[in-house]
Design a protein that fits this description.
The complex is a heterodimer. Chain A has 16 helices and eleven strands. Chain A is of the alpha/beta class. Chain B is an alpha+beta fold. The radius of gyration of chain B is 18 Å and the shape is elongated. Classes of the chains: A alpha/beta, B alpha+beta.
Chain lengths: ~400, ~180
């Protein structure tokens, strides 16, 4: 059943424009303090404190700074940004404008993934309306000397470009290969200028915080993970769609809400996330426990976990940028290993070697893709060994039957 | 005056690069537009872009070969991209894939001999709650079943009919923000 009900979301209760007006009445320093008080952390999944990112960029002296919105939502199972872009684009634009004010940038760029090209014209028309209304362009809201405009740039079908330095490389017209860090984008970002890169949802929360107050946001969730979060729910449950829950919700509570309690596992955080078995459903979804950018895939009792792992490894083999060896070669080896397991040709000795290779990849890969690609493999091997070893043949129905 | 196709192509590209500000950061938007207009980025185009931007053609090739929506091989007029990630797999993408192959007579990664359709896999289209999902050029189809694959293909084929221009107009008339 399809029940993305946008009218019940906080985003639809915040009148567009109020947050922007309130925030732009503050000084840049006060805006950053507001974000600090709210405890907002990056909603793309990494959970980096937004205020710290903004403060670092604000402290660098440069005539040119950039605000980049990461709308390259490529993580399997994530679609909340599509819903935000479709229904709450205004809030995201406002968040970017507030960010521009906070760090002293006059240019915003939305990096929209190629798969969402059908949203481009729609967003462009919204931007045009905002320019007409004086919400973008020269002297935004008649504030002297605050110029801010937003441009949309398209991605071209590369998952890795969701990584912030790869995204910047792509904006500069290069292959989307992650950079070494440091220097961080807050110092040396787009074209060598200070740049903040934030997720669509992070920007959308900013005007809500400005409008409803930092305290409101801080009082929701846990100590380390404050506020509300949008979740993309798919898989074997009765309610699919985007839901808003407070951070710190347990997996069990979440499953009850979406009616998927008979699940044998939940993949939290997409392909690069963890596969949580039923025995651990009391764990919480928060940056300090199981972290996610919003992707929740419920895996029902009749699914084959090895096929799940196979799907993810095929994904990573395809999407590895090929720059560093652990990721490029490691993912190939793990996929090969899964195929051996599927055919029942893998010894325990070799499986151990594969697991140790996975751990090496987590340590030695250059960017988040390679560091997290073995997560699903390792957690599935660890938790579902009885299902995986000693198979006699690959099941013809694929993922459907265990 | 007689203008050769190549000269025309060159002026076309020069104009586009100028529109995007004549620097390296223009590279991806320009190759995207070329891809859209000509269906691929040929070696000649790569050479021209490299000349204008004063970079090595290998750098252009590096970019063209990196991104999955850009390529140097000629593709069909309609590129059908079926999502292969987990949520769509759980909702039956394999059967949709089989039916697409049957109806088009090609495998994934191939183009029909008449140059009309290309069939490709794609990673997560962000329609996990409404899978299986596929993209036809820029248009998204959700909850695709093996039996409605045919009507999607027919919708494309209509474009080849008598009222080509008009049909193209309706098929490209977007945005239809999903949901």
């Amino acid at each position: 059943m399809q029940i993305t009900d946008t009218s019940r979301m906080t985003f639809s209760k915040v009148e567009s424009g109020t947050g922007l007006r309130k925030a732009l009445n503050l000084s840049p320093g006060e805006i950053i303090q507001l974000i600090t008080d709210s405890g907002l952390k990056g909603r793309g999944g990494a959970g980096f404190p937004t205020d710290l990112k903004w403060k670092l960029a604000a402290n660098v002296k440069d005539d040119l700074k950039y605000v980049v919105c990461n709308a390259d939502e490529g993580e399997p199972g994530t679609f909340k940004d599509r819903v935000i872009l479709t229904f709450f684009g205004e809030l995201m634009f406002e968040g970017m404008t507030i960010g521009g004010r906070a760090i002293g940038a006059s240019k915003g760029i939305i990096y929209l993934r190629g798969e969402y090209t059908y949203l481009r014209a729609f967003l462009e028309s919204k931007l045009a309306k905002r320019r007409k209304a004086g919400l973008l362009g020269k002297n935004v809201l008649d504030i002297d000397g605050f110029d801010f405009d937003i441009e949309i740039r398209m991605g071209a079908g590369a998952y890795i470009c969701g990584e912030e330095t790869a995204l910047i490389e792509s904006l500069e017209g290069q292959r989307g290969e992650p950079r070494n860090r440091p220097p961080f984008p807050v110092n040396t970002g787009f074209m060598g200028h200070p740049t903040i890169v934030n997720n669509v949802e992070t920007f959308a929360w900013v005007p809500c915080i400005a409008s409803k107050g930092a305290k409101w946001f801080h009082n929701i969730g846990t100590e380390k993970s404050t506020g509300l979060k949008m979740f993309s729910i798919s898989g074997d449950c009765n309610h699919h769609g985007v839901f808003e829950f407070p951070m710190g919700i347990t997996i069990q509570e979440l499953l009850e809400k979406v009616e998927g309690t008979d699940a044998k596992a939940v993949q939290v955080g997409g392909a690069s996330g963890y596969c949580v078995p039923a025995s651990q459903f009391d764990r919480t979804i928060a940056f300090e426990d199981v972290s996610t950018g919003g992707s929740i895939i419920v895996i029902g009792p009749e699914r084959d976990m090895l096929e799940v792992a196979h799907n993810f490894m095929e994904f990573f083999v395809d999407e590895s940028c090929g720059q560093c060896t652990p990721c490029r070669e490691g993912n190939e080896k793990l996929l090969e290993g899964i195929e051996m397991l599927l055919e029942g040709r893998c010894s325990m000795q070799y499986l151990r070697e594969l697991c140790s290779l996975g751990e090496t990849m987590q340590l030695a890969s250059k960017c988040g893709l390679g560091q997290s690609s073995p997560n699903a493999f390792l957690s599935i091997i660890q938790n579902f060994k009885s299902e995986i070893m000693g198979r006699t043949s690959r099941h013809p129905a694929g993922i459907l039957n265990a | 005056m007689l203008v050769s196709e190549r000269e025309q192509l060159r002026t076309n590209i020069e104009r586009r690069i100028k529109d995007f500000g004549n620097n390296r950061s223009a590279l991806i938007p320009v190759v995207q537009e070329v891809q859209l207009e000509y269906g691929h980025v040929s070696e000649y185009v790569m050479q021209v872009i490299a000349d204008i931007l004063q970079i090595h053609p290998v750098e252009v090739y590096g970019v063209v070969s990196f991104y999955s929506f850009i390529g140097h091989k000629q593709k069909g007029r309609f590129i059908i991209r079926l999502c292969r990630t987990l949520s769509c797999e759980m909702q039956g993408k394999d059967r949709v894939a089989r039916q697409l192959e049957n109806d088009l007579g090609i495998s994934f990664g191939e183009t029909t001999p008449d140059g009309n359709f290309t069939l490709e896999w794609v990673n997560c289209l962000g329609m996990c709650d409404q899978g299986p999902a596929l993209l036809v050029n820029e248009r998204i189809y959700t909850k695709v079943t093996p039996e409605n694959v045919h009507s999607i293909l027919e919708e494309c084929r209509k474009v080849f009919g008598v009222h080509t221009l008009q049909a193209k107009e309706t098929l490209c008339k977007l945005p239809t923000p999903a949901e």
